[in-house]
Design a protein that fits this description.
This protein is mainly β. It is about 0% helix and about 55% strand. Strand 18 and strand 19 form a beta hairpin.
């Protein structure tokens, strides 16, 4: 049986050692500049290897919306995408490039004290959770000047922590990169990654796209905050879903493959959320056509607690080749169908909203 311990009060510990493992509960302060050898990096290397982002997924029976602010050391970006679930058509899909910190803010805090800010001409993203609050707030504004055909985008959302399951927190080693002869660069050393995933938070707010209005009240929210010294070449597949059973109980999951690897037989990032509880599950396997991400996906876990298919309705994409820097980021939005097994209870899924992801980065 996979077990989650209570989240540590700070990362790293007072001795600078990262507490590798999976936990249940909100993380305290994350300050990777305090890492002790062999994980410590000089300041210039931290700036190059550090990747941080805050991400939110809002779902209702009418709409699914995703948004993120990411800071990758030398630059930043933000994106917002939404799909009408009745019409099964995209409403908006915008990716924006911006300056690095301090002009873009992605806080080390992942729960209380979280802050995110991104601004470029015609667009503004603001994420926050005050230290004394039980609500995350997400605000996105994209001017009609950037979208003359379909109009302004305005998103104001809140995600309530009270009543939701505790988040999944993971501190994972990042494997050292293969070294060429004579190359002892600290950029190839083993790194550390910290992530906190939450699913099942109660939503409130509204999305406006042009003249369209979508209330968010009663919806369900999933969150991802990540901060780490990642490898120059990083690849993964990921899935997050959140919605409700017919009786109104919130449920969802977070699944990943190829990233944040943990020792066999120990709990990792793969977890189910139901009501106010979470349950770790086994390693996930993703079956899909990378050349056609809008085709059907199939995802299962080794312990057979998850057996689902995913039907994309739209794929958010950010594909760039700048020579030394390359990215292939594809995040389809759509529906999950299939079966989950939560603590002996079989749950049948039918059109559970969520996302999958295929990411391959040289950064």
């Amino acid at each position: 049986m996979l077990v989650l311990s209570s989240a540590p009060p700070q990362i790293p510990g007072a001795d600078g050692v990262p507490p590798f493992g999976a936990y249940a509960g909100e993380l305290g302060p994350v300050d990777l500049a305090r890492l002790a050898p062999p994980h410590a990096l000089p300041g210039w290397a931290r700036r190059l290897r550090r990747k941080r982002w805050h991400y939110a997924l809002y779902t209702t029976p009418e709409v699914v919306a995703v948004m993120a602010i990411a800071e990758v050391g030398y630059a930043s970006n933000a994106f917002f995408a939404a799909v009408d679930l009745h019409e099964k058509q995209p409403l908006v899909d915008e990716t924006l490039l911006g300056p690095p910190a301090p002009l873009t803010i992605v806080s080390d805090e992942m729960s209380r004290g979280l802050a995110g800010s991104f601004r470029v001409p015609g667009a503004r993203f603001r994420f926050a959770r005050p230290a004394d609050s039980d609500r995350y707030r997400h605000s996105v504004e994209i001017s009609a000047l950037r979208r003359p055909r379909s109009g302004r985008v305005k998103f104001e959302g809140e995600a309530l922590v009270t009543g939701a399951p505790p988040p999944l927190a993971l501190v994972a080693p990042v494997p050292a990169q293969p070294r060429r002869e004579g190359d002892g660069s600290v950029l190839r050393r083993q790194g550390v990654n910290v992530t906190q995933k939450s699913v099942g938070l109660l939503a409130a707010g509204r999305l406006e796209v042009g003249r369209r209005r979508y209330p968010l009240d009663g919806g369900v929210v999933g969150l991802d905050s990540t901060h780490g010294f990642l490898a120059r070449r990083t690849r993964w597949n990921w899935a997050m879903a959140c919605g409700r059973l017919e009786d109104g109980t919130p449920l969802g999951f977070n699944l990943v493959a190829g990233f944040n690897q943990v020792a066999a037989g120990t709990a990792g990032e793969n977890v189910l959320f139901l009501g106010d509880q979470l349950e770790p599950v086994g390693p996930a396997v993703f079956h899909f056509d990378a050349a056609d991400p809008l085709d059907l996906w199939r995802i299962e876990t080794g312990d057979r607690t998850v057996e689902v298919t995913f039907r994309p309705l739209h794929a958010h994409r950010d594909v760039r080749d700048l020579g030394l820097l390359r990215s292939r980021f594809v995040q389809p939005l759509g529906f999950f169908t299939g079966r989950l097994r939560f603590r002996g209870r079989d749950l049948t899924l039918s059109e559970l909203p969520g996302v999958t992801e295929d990411q391959d980065m040289l950064w």
